[in-house]
């Protein structure tokens, strides 16, 4: 009765995206690095441990408070590499541009990419440009891929969360998604919220130097903290217990989410990370994070527990409990 | 109201005190209905069921507008989306609701012009900017959304926007409460009444119902302390053996409601008998666009062809919407019916009971 077709939800990062990846891509491409389902692949080549990652950016609008599609495309791939424990080195950039796109806007985007790359300490070494007829793409889409080197002794993977591990978040959640939302056509809120897009690799470098035994790193982009934690719980076959009153969120961001009936746990971040560390390493990792701008509001939000059902549970402010499920679909399409 | 002020109603200490007093005062087994879907979601999101004494059972009611919209109306929305030059504008909640053969989400993927808006005024704006299109807003909701939708219609008339139309599938809360009591299997000892609806209609709107059925009724806000407070008030009434209307949401709800909003509703709409999914036809429980505004009434303007319409079999949405059953009682729940492959609207609406269970329930 129902035609098989791609819905916006398939690109959401939520349950349908997950089904598409595990049901279609994974069996088709079938290899060990891919099956880890991490932010990037970890590869052993000629005695070196490389991380390799790719991401496409279709954010609408292309310019928003705190950044634009250019800076997002650089930081996003830099962060995906950093979440593998790698020091990002080189990036590629593929641009798909709609006929008629304003060259001044392209200048701005390229300038943003240049300064973002400099800021992150990476070099854009190869690229591609395609132009498609007006109406067949919306303004500009950017793909970036990147490679980085994973230092000796670092093993970061989504399946390494262990009961007892503590869960750290690097700062307040949901700012990027809410920023994009309020910029969208028809949403006329007075708001000072800006995107949190920022490179996390320098902070991650510091964290790993101080504590090489970090188990999991993940940047909760599309699908937000709730989706990332569900993925980690599932990969590691553990439960995760969150404390609602510990999860940082700016009052204004929380207010807009509430007004629009959105759950900030599922809203995209572009400059935040989740770290799973042994309890004895928490203070050390937190103190390193707090020295970096990207982690100055870092805090503990939960812990890993034994649970064969791999559920994420929230202890609510009033002392009740509830599940934090993986969402069916994205609340907001084209967020990054 | 500022978020800072809201924090008081989320204060763990206040909530703890309310929970403790509830454990003290409530002894007999009671079933309380959260009539409103937003209450259901807040109950789950805050883990309220997990802190209540075992003798108190919360059941969900018909207060999710998308959920109570009958199948033939959902299919009519889909029928409208097939018409040439029609732009469908809707609240996001309806997008995933399954019709008999498709959903708005699937039709959007097939290229139909279906846009999610946050207000009917956004829909009116789309009509203003696209004079060559016919813009239809799907008016699904209770007394809460009806005033802005009425306003969009009066504004369209004043500004001479002739390509804006509303499909009114509005429903009214007080009549359905009486309708519920007529259903033999419904067993509810007390009603937690919706806060937002009551802001518009005022607490007096429930007097007839409360007196006729001697039903314990408490109007409640949506924060955890609001809900716990309302549950305590209901438990006290029931333990004391009486049933009356009380207002636990006095910071927002007055006796007479929002007179301006009510006048606007009355100007544009008239009350009619209407069909509720799972409940059937309830007298004078719907809002139809008045003849005077028929040029804006999508049902009058368009010939809507519904090829085939039939409610899903096996889905117990009806019993869930009347609090007779809980989602885990449904044979389809979590097995065949999930948020990605829903059978009924209760699984996809953000206020749906099945969606709340699926997302938050630890059992």
Quick overview of this protein structure:
Chain A: Pfam families: AIRS, AIRS_C. The complex is a heterodimer of chains A (336) and B (363). Chain A has 336 residues and is α+β, with helices and mostly antiparallel strands.
Could you outline the blueprint of secondary structure elements for this entry?
The complex is a heterodimer of chains A (336) and B (363).
Chain A: H1 15-29, H2 32-35, E1 41-45, E2 48-57, E3 63-64, E4 67-68, H3 69-82, E5 87-98, H4 103-120, E6 123-132, E7 140-149, E8 166-169, H5 175-183, H6 201-210, E9 216-218, H7 224-236, E10 239-243, H8 251-260, E11 274-277, H9 282-291, E12 299-305, E13 312-315, E14 321-323
Parallel strand pairs in A: 5-6, 10-13
Antiparallel strand pairs in A: 1-2, 2-7, 3-4, 5-7, 8-11, 8-12, 9-11, 10-12, 13-14
Helix pairs in contact in A: 3-4, 6-9
Chain B: H1 3-6, H2 12-25, E1 30-36, H3 37-45, E2 56-63, H4 65-68, H5 71-81, E3 86-90, H6 104-109, E4 114-116, H7 120-129, E5 134-139, H8 146-158, E6 164-168, E7 170-171, H9 173-181, E8 190-193, H10 195-201, H11 207-213, E9 217-219, H12 224-240, E10 245-247, H13 259-268, E11 269-276, E12 280-289, H14 298-301, H15 317-321, H16 353-360
Parallel strand pairs in B: 1-2, 1-8, 3-4, 3-5, 5-6, 8-9, 9-10
Antiparallel strand pairs in B: 7-12, 11-12
Structure write-up:
- The complex is a heterodimer of chains A (336) and B (363).
- Helix content of chain A is 31%, strand content 24%.
- Chain A has nine helices and 14 strands.
- Chain A has helices at residues 15-29, 32-35, 69-82, 103-120, 175-183, 201-210, 224-236, 251-260, 282-291; strands at 41-45, 48-57, 63-64, 67-68, 87-98, 123-132, 140-149, 166-169, 216-218, 239-243, 274-277, 299-305, 312-315, 321-323.
- Chain A has a seven-stranded mixed beta sheet. In chain A, strands 1-2-7-5-6 form a five-stranded mixed beta sheet, covered by helices on one side. A two-stranded antiparallel sheet of chain A has the order 3-4.
- Chain B is an alpha/beta fold.
- Chain B folds into two domains: 26-315, Rossmann fold (3-Layer(aba) Sandwich), CATH 3.40.50.11740; 317-360, no CATH class.
- Chain B has 16 helices and twelve strands.
- Chain B has helices at residues 3-6, 12-25, 37-45, 65-68, 71-81, 104-109, 120-129, 146-158, 173-181, 195-201, 207-213, 224-240, 259-268, 298-301, 317-321, 353-360; strands spanning 30-36, 56-63, 86-90, 114-116, 134-139, 164-168, 170-171, 190-193, 217-219, 245-247, 269-276, 280-289.
- Classes of the chains: A alpha+beta (336), B alpha/beta (363).
- The A-B interface holds A 1-3, 5-9, 15-16, 19, 186-187, 245, 251, 254-255, 258, 260-261, 311, 313-323, 325, 327-329, 331 and B 3-4, 10, 12, 15-16, 19, 44-51, 92, 96, 101-102, 105-106, 108-110, 117-118, 122, 125, 224-225, 228, 338-340, 348, 350, 358-362.
- Chain B: This is Protein required for maturation of hydrogenases.
């Amino acid at each position: 009765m129902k035609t098989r077709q791609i819905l916006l939800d398939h690109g959401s990062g939520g349950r349908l995206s997950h089904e598409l990846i595990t049901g279609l891509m994974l069996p088709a491409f079938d290899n060990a690095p891919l099956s880890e389902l991490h932010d990037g692949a970890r590869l052993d080549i000629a005695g070196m441990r490389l991380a390799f990652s790719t991401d496409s950016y279709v954010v609408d609008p292309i310019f928003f408070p705190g950044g634009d599609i250019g800076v997002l495309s650089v930081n996003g791939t830099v962060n995906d590499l950093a979440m593998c424990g790698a020091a990002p080195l080189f990036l590629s950039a593929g641009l798909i541009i709609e006929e008629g796109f304003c060259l001044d806007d392209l200048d701005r985007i390229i300038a943003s990419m240049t300064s973002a790359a400099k800021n992150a300490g990476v070099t854009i070494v190869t690229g591609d440009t395609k132009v498609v007829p007006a109406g067949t793409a919306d303004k500009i889409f950017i793909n970036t891929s990147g490679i980085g080197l994973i230092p000796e002794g670092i093993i970061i993977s989504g399946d390494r969360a262990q009961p007892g591990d503590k869960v750290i978040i690097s700062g307040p959640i949901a700012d990027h998604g809410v920023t994009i939302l309020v910029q969208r056509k028809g949403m006329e809120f007075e708001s000072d919220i800006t995107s949190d897009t920022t490179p996390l690799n320098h902070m991650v470098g510091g964290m790993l130097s101080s504590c090489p035994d970090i188990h999991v790193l993940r940047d909760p982009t599309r699908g937000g903290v709730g989706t990332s934690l569900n993925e980690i719980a599932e990969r590691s076959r553990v439960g995760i217990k969150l404390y609602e009153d510990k999860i940082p969120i700016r009052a204004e961001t929380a207010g807009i989410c509430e007004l629009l009936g959105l759950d900030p746990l599922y809203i995209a971040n572009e400059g935040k990370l989740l770290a799973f560390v042994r309890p004895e390493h928490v203070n050390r990792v937190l103190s390193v994070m707090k020295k970096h701008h990207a982690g100055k509001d870092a805090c503990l939000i939960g812990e890993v527990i034994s649970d064969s059902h791999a559920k994420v549970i929230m202890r609510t402010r009033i002392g009740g409990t509830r599940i934090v499920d993986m969402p069916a679909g994205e609340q907001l399409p084209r967020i990054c | 109201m500022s978020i800072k002020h809201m924090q008081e109603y989320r204060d763990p200490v206040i909530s703890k005190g309310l929970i403790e007093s509830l454990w003290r005062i409530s002894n007999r087994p009671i079933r309380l209905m959260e009539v409103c879907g937003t209450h259901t979601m807040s109950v789950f999101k805050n883990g309220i069921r997990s802190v209540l004494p075992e003798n108190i059972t919360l059941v969900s009611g018909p207060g999710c507008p998308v959920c109570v919209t009958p199948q033939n109306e959902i299919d009519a929305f889909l029928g409208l989306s097939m018409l040439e030059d029609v732009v469908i504008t809707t609240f996001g909640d309806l997008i995933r609701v399954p019709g008999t053969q498709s959903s708005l989400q699937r039709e959007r993927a097939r290229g139909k012009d279906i846009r999610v808006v946050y207000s009917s005024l956004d829909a009116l704006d789309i009509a203003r900017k696209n004079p060559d299109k016919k813009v239809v807003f799907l008016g699904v909701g209770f007394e809460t959304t009806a005033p802005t939708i009425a306003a969009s219609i009066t504004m369209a008339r004043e500004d001479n926007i002739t390509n804006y139309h509303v499909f009114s599938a509005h429903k009214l809360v007080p009549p359905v409460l009486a309708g519920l009591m007529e259903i033999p299997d419904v067993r509810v000892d007390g009603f937690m009444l919706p806060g937002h609806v009551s802001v518009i209609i005022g607490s007096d709107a429930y007097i007839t119902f409360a007196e006729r059925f001697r039903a314990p009724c408490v109007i409640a806000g949506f924060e955890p302390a609001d809900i716990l407070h309302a549950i305590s008030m209901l438990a006290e009434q029931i333990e004391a053996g009486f049933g009356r209307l009380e207002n636990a949401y006095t910071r927002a709800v007055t006796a007479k409601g929002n007179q301006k909003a009510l006048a606007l509703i009355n100007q544009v709409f008239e009350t009619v008998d209407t069909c509720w999914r799972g409940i059937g036809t309830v007298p004078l429980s719907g809002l139809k666009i008045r003849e005077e505004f028929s040029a804006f009434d999508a049902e009058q303007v368009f010939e809507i062809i519904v090829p085939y319409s039939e409610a899903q079999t096996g889905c117990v949405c009806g019993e869930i919407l009347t609090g007779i059953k809980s989602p885990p009682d449904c044979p389809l729940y979590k097995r065949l019916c999930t948020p990605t492959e829903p059978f009924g609207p209760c699984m996809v609406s953000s206020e749906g009971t099945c969606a709340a269970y699926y997302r938050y329930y630890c059992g």
